[in-house]
Amino acid sequence: MNNSKQRIEQSKRYLASLGKIDTRTQFGGYSLAVEKIVFAVVAEGELYLRACEQIQPYVGAGRMPPLVFQKRGMPVALNYFRVDDAMWEQPEMLLALSRSSLKRAQQQSLDKIANPRVKDLPNMGLRLEMMLREVGICSVQSLRAEGSKQCWLKLKAAHKNVGINILFALEGAITGRHQAALPDAVMQELRDWVECLSLCPQAKK
């Protein structure tokens, strides 16, 4: 841990011109971020830069191995690549590569905002995104166009164990709210609709 702390301080000195660098625990190490955009990770005393076009030649030459994270006992290679000793001896090059990693991370963040995936919406996740994809709802646009009720009906037809909480989650995702923050009136209307379905299955609107 001490080695990582020292490396973080060294990174902050070398990369100070990028802006104020904040750190937090991540991947068993520490993430480095400027204005909440993560561009690097320090793990086991080493600095790893986020993937970008400018570091690919070094990765291809074997100079920058990936950060390997153990997940459930299995090694997973992440898109962060280790800065070697020679790079530390070339501060200008290290700064340029770090700036490229930061710019790439910033662009990815903007792209995510402009073109979000279903899993990035409130209450959603990869599993629910995959379930929706199975029933033909493959984008945020199609989710919103169908509406929470029709999406839920399609999921219910494919997965009998889908309950009302999924309906709340879908409504929250479409309206940009955590499902617990849905207005009581909205939640009650959805409950009434589900109850009506059980009594009148043809009322699927």
Automatic annotation (TrEMBL):
> Which domain of life does this protein belong to?
Bacteria
Domain TfoX N-terminal: start-end pairs: 14-104
User: One Pfam annotation, family name?
Assistant: TfoX_N
Q: What is this protein called?
A: Competence protein TfoX
Q: Which residues form the TfoX C-terminal domain?
A: 115-193
List the GO biological process terms: establishment of competence for transformation
Q: Which organism is it from?
A: Winslowiella iniecta
Q: What InterPro entries does UniProt report for this protein, alphabetically?
A: TfoX-like (IPR047525), TfoX-like_gammaprotbact (IPR026256), TfoX_C (IPR007077), TfoX_N (IPR007076)
Q: Which PANTHER family match?
A: PROTEIN SXY
